[in-house]
Amino acid sequence: MAPTLPEGIAASNGRIEAGRIGIATRLSGRIDEVFIDKGDWVEAGALIARMDTLELAAELHAAQALVRQAQQQKLQAEALLRQRRSEGVTVQAEFNRVSQLFEDGFISEARLDGQRTVLETAQAALAAAEAGIPLADATIAAAEASVERLQSLIDDANLTAPRAGRVQYVLAQEGEILGAGGRVATLTDLSDMYMSIFLPTRAAARLAIGAEARIILDAIPEYVIPATVTFVASSAQFTPRSVETEEERDGLMFRVNLTIAPDLLMTYRDRARAGVPGMGYVRVDTDADWPAELAVKLPQ
């Protein structure tokens, strides 16, 4: 029997709705394993399915080999740089000696020019060796980036639940080939469960976000579930034509969501079901008192 409502309390029928979480693949491929069944409860981070990664693993091994090769190339570049620096010191010392001999008149200018050419060649070789170090670093970075990309793809082959929820549908099985974005399962998101009701203009206009609400489900009318108003539509859902009279305007209906607290849903997660019909009650006047019939009453 519906409770007698005091002034400031509005009511409407509705049904429980819940957010949906689609578990989908990032890349195309074959499903290797599916770890869930319809109706299972899964925690956040739980493994839902695993995609085949043999080809990606082979590419990863090749990329890791390229990293090692690039690291060896850098070692060679560093050794070459040390060699060129040592040669540069020797050639510079020889040029200084020949310059002094030229100034003292013991050797010709042609000999000095020849030694200058040797020095410039050594300096050019040193500059090239120095440039080889950042080039080797860039090669290593590119190879490591390839490893990170492939490792990310392999990690994404493990499809996990982003939030806790109940498996609503299992849409693919082991051995099936899915395209990129192919959906494997759908979860009911208990962090986003609410009742949608429709209220007339006079009630909706007075209703504040965060207002207290109550829900009584047809299947368990002996319990009163606390909820909170989390959404009031900004435009009417019914009568989408131009409305002229006050009576017609008051007949406009606005959608209102009554959200159940996630921690309460987690406590009664085995009882939570989307699609269950019932009645929703909202306090449009903050001074209104809830009647005794709408006092919160939950299963023990």
Notes on the protein architecture:
The protein has 300 residues and is α+β, with helices and mostly antiparallel strands. It contains 5 helices and 12 strands. The chain has 2 domains: 115 residues, Elongation Factor Tu (Ef-tu), domain 3, CATH 2.40.30; 103 residues, Helix Hairpins. The strands form 2 sheets. The protein has a 6-stranded antiparallel β-barrel with strand order 1-8-11-10-9-12. Strands 5-4-2-7 form a 4-stranded antiparallel β-sheet. A hairpin with a 7-residue loop joins β9 and β10. α1 runs antiparallel to α2.
Describe the secondary structure blueprint for this structure.
Blueprint (H helix, E strand, L loop, with lengths): L8 E16 L4 E6 L6 E2 L4 E5 L2 H50 L5 H48 L1 E3 L4 E6 L6 E2 L4 E18 H6 L5 E6 L7 E8 L13 H5 L2 E7 L2 H6 L9 E7 L17
Antiparallel strand pairs: 1-8, 1-12, 2-4, 2-7, 3-6, 4-5, 6-8, 8-11, 9-10, 9-12, 10-11
Helix pairs in contact: 1-2
Q: Main beta sheet, described?
A: 6 strands, antiparallel, barrel
Instruction: Provide the low-confidence segments as ranges.
Output: none
CATH class of the largest domain: Mainly Beta
CATH topology-level fold name of the largest domain: Elongation Factor Tu (Ef-tu), domain 3
Strand order within the widest beta sheet = 1-8-11-10-9-12
* Strand and helix order: EEEEHHEEEEHEEHEHE
N- and C-termini, Cα separation: 23 Å
Q: Find the CATH superfamily of the largest domain.
A: Efflux pump adaptor protein, beta barrel domain
Mean pLDDT: 88
Instruction: Tell me the number of helical segments per DSSP (H or I, 4 or more residues long).
Output: 5
What is the approximate shape?
A: elongated
Number of strands: 12
